[in-house]
Amino acid sequence: MWLNWLKTRGGAAMAALGTVKGSGNWFLALALGVTLLKCLLIPTYHSTDFEVHRNWLAITHSLPLSQWYYEATSEWTLDYPPFFAWFEYVLSHVAKYFDQEMLNIHNLNYFNSRTLLFQRFSVIFTDLLFVYAVHECCKCVNGKKASKELTEKPKFILSALLLWNFGLLIVDHIHFQYNGFLSGLMLLSIARLFQKRHMEGAFLFAILLHFKHIYLYVAPAYGIYLLRSYCFTASKPDGSVRWNSFSFTRLISLGLIVFLVSALSLGPFLAMNQLPQVFSRLFPFKRGLCHAYWAPNFWALYNAADKLLCTIGLELKLLDPNKIPKASMTSGLVQQFEHTVLPSVSPVATLICTLIAILPSVCCLWLKPQGPRGFLRCLILCALSSFMFGWHVHEKAILLAILPMSLLSVEKAGDASIFLILTTTGHYSLFPLLFTTPELPIKILLMLLFTIYSISSLMTLFRKEKPLFNWMETVYLLGLAPLEVCCEFVFPFTSWRLKYPFIPLLLTSVYCAVGVTYAWFRLYVSMLTGPPGGKTKKQ
Amino acid sequence: MEKCYWMAVAILMGLTVRWTVSLHSYSGAGKPPLFGDYEAQRHWQEVTLNLPVRQWYFNSSDNDLQYWGLDYPPLTAYHSLLCAYVAERIEPAWVALYTSRGHESAAHKLFMRATVFIADLMIYIPAVVLYCCCLKEISTKKKAASALCILLYPGLILIDHGHFQHIYNCVSLGLALWGVLGVSRDWDLLGSLAFCLALNYKQMELYHSLPFFCFLLGKCFQKGLKGKGLGSLLRLACTVVASCALCWLPFLTEWEQTLQVLRRLFPVDRGLFEDKVANVWCSLSVFVKVKDLLLRDTQILISFLITLLSVLPACVKLTLRPSLRGFRFALVSCALSFFLFSFQVHEKSILLVALPVCLVLHEVPFMSAWFLLVSTFSMLPLLLRDGLLLPSVATTMAFCMACAALLPAWAEASEEALQLGAFLAAVRKHLPYLKPALLPHGIRCLFLASVTTMVLLTLMSVTLEPPRKYPDLFAVLVCFVSCLNFLLFLAYFNIVIMWDSKNGRRKKTN
User: Fold this and answer.
1) Residue A268 preceded by cis peptide, ω within 30
2) Range A34-50 burial, b when 16+ CB lie within 10 A, else e
3) ipTM score here?
């Protein structure tokens, strides 16, 4: 009797094992594989962000709502929008079963293995949303031809690129942050727009905005796209807008969604008259132009040019050495960077630069709507432009552009080439995040793994078209290897280590800034010179 | 290039998993006074660096053999010396005589982990990659897939990079694998040289020596012992003697030296088995205390005889009919027999069986993967003691997944896939009423039962407190269950070996 049962169950189990290999469950294998890797990464180094999030758990758990944005026992005050605070609140109710003590506000820098396990697993667990979003995104890509080989299908490559993304792995699972599920929300909302479920997409994005306000950078793309392609129900044959097709109901329902989500998030604070306090926490403009380590953007090039001019000026005796602020010469990495030759940059200036950089892409989205793909391109350009010109940009913000860019990369050879340059340089610029020796092999190995896979798989996918890189790009990308060797293996043993400790970081950010700028420029060109909207399908 | 990248991905995955596992705990971390295998390795570096070669294996005031005395062959000692030189360049306190005992620090851990990682990268991984590249009749992608499965084998990763075995398995197994590679590519001299190095790195490689010997001997027989065969036999013998002599050179000057090293290598007085091993003697001692019942000499004799008896069929067959396939299977069956029946076996010696099983992974994926799972499970008590639960579970699951997703016909337990067709045909002659579907069904049931017990026992050992009367209850159960599994595998692999020729002949006629 039981033997019989065992046989049937056995058959079922074997069949289940068999399907892993067979129909479509490769996705599960990819997702599970990366999850196991994440579990192995648990004991790695974690940054102060670990303590930041522990502190937020404590704040939301032990204080009433009215105190959340006032509490300042720890220097890591709550500076994310309310939904994220609520998210921490929910987590804290699980955390109390792991260790009650980590929820005490006064236990600064509290750490033990249970706290570590809980925090790490909370990231791994919430990444499930990301996995689901990737699954949905895979439905949206259409390869030109369905290749017979599973590993050469765009869907497979896309899910590998997203699930095994190097940046997400090291930022979330080593450095410690919750980018996984936030990116998941963004990808999910993009996927919904691709699936013509505009209301859902807008709803998800509104929620996302109240989780982390950095996504405000891509809000223009959402706004214009929804207005142009959803609220206006038809276009003229040449692609320009047909003004009389405007649908008020759609606009109002969109507005209602955004309003309701915002009310849910900010309403309580409005009622308590705390909105100014909340906003002062969310938008601290007191920080410097660049982060301690310069993100590889336009300002990194600007700063480097300033330094270069300054050195040249001193050599040629055009500048008076006494007038130069000393800090700027000895250490390039103080928070407040004072320019010596070029004019200093104010927050307003960066804001204007960002807006100017975003404007053409948004206009293009309005004038030549190309369906969701045009929207996606615009979104990436918004993210990348604000990364290029924003005030106090973190190097991690590059993920905001890299992840959606993966979607484009598997559809067109040109985009694949831009994507590879952007990801490789962007990911390499994340290296300084992990500066401890035990993590050095991990970051190099994972980077190699991701880079080799992404380049080779996309090359295989587009092998019938012209090569993805010209010789200049190839040389540039290969140059990253000697750069890494110089910065991390040679430089520490030279005598410059003490005199100019900032050189490796400076080199890294300037070198990567060139690549990111180049990718940004090429992406812009591809958007502006893209086919006119009339040729694409009508909305 | 397009085709190579899968291999690159496989290697990088293997390396990543190795390094991430190495960030976890190691054996004897923070457990004075004896610490663990990690301390043993460090201590050897200390001893080999500071003492002259003549004193390495002798008990003296400077070299307390009771405290992790050197008990492996000279090559291990040389490797320790090499590491010690590097360690001294970085931080002399790590290898200072006396004062460095029990030294533990994050930097030192990093150094030790790096030594294993580099050894693995230089010896074991190239061997695996080359082996998979040499596999015939499969696509590049399949080759990369089998390389990934072999590289992800959790047992080796956990013992070398997690537990920190006081003798790098990746080196000895890697050298043995180079030996297999050499022999199978018909570079017999290189192969035997590599195997001699392996043997002089870790004496447990003797488990593999019989198949090597029989295979090479059989090859010589095939060439004709009076003509070419004799020449190649002599050349082989010279290579073996010369390479061994070279390794032992400093210890051959005095008879007493050689004898002492041998005494250290084969510590007969340590008893029939150590700790909890998943072999027959340990499992038997649950019912009968063999250790106390019989005299030591009788024990040695009995274990020797039984081992000999169990390796005999495979070896005779291999000598008479040397074939590459037979060689690989004979490696499995001999190593397994030694592990199950021989005298003084460590639980970690199962890795010596696991290596040849990895080599047949592409031929009998189902049984091999199952065996590799059981072998990892059999080391569970050890891994739990070291606080390696998380990496063990994660790497085991990753391995299962890799096998399920990548290996051909992993879930297929048909006669053909199990390579049992010839055997069953023979059985059916005598028992005609045997249904064809019975065996695959039976194997599946066994697999399921085995996996279920493994999962349950793992859960129990992690969550439950053992009863006070039997503090080792779960460890013994783990060993017992694994031992039963191993006996089954021994029978299976022997059947495959013995009925192999008919299979081969049929293929030839086809």
Assistant:
1) no
2) bbbbbbbbbbbbbbebb
3) 0.91
The model's pLDDT over B323-377, given as tens digits with 9 standing for 90+, comes to: 888 999 999 999 999 999 988 888 888 999 999 999 998 888 888 999 999 999 9
CA distances from A228 to A52, A195, A259 (A): 40, 17, 20
Taking the Cβ of residue B12 and every Cβ of chain A, the question of whether any pair is shorter than 8 Å is answered with yes
Name the amino acid, one letter, at A512: C
A5 falls in which pLDDT band (50, 70, 90)?
A: very low
Q: Is B378 helix (H, G, I), strand (E, B) or coil?
A: helix
pLDDT of residue B150: 94
* CA-to-CA dists, residue A220 to A28, A206, A334, A381, B469, angstroms: 35, 13, 33, 11, 70
- Which candidate, B194, B170, B165, places its Cα nearest to that of B180? B194
Q: How many CB pairs (< 8 A) connect A and B?
A: 102
pLDDT single digits (tens) A402-439: 999 999 999 888 999 999 999 999 999 999 988 888 99
pLDDT of amino acid B198: 93
Q: Are residues A40 and B394, on separate chains, in Cβ contact within 8 Å? A: yes
Contact at CB, A438 and B141, closer than 8 angstroms: no
The encoded tokens of residue A424 equal 């490789």
**For the range A151-154, what are the long-range contacts, defined as Cβ-Cβ under 8 Å and sequence gap of 24 or more?**
A151/A457, A151/B141, A152/A457, A152/A460, A152/A461, A154/A410, A154/A411, A154/A461
Residues A137-175: b if buried by 16+ CB within 10 A, e if exposed? bbebbebeeeeeeeebbbbbbbbbbbbbbbbbbbbbbbb
Query: Best residue in A456, A460, A461, A478 to probe B by mutation, most B CBs within 10 Å?
Result: A456
**Contact call for residues A302 and A342 (beta carbons, < 8 A):** yes
Q: Which residues pair with A235 in a beta bridge?
A: A241
Which two three-digit tokens encode residue B108? 């030192």
A16-27 pLDDT tens trace: 444 444 445 889
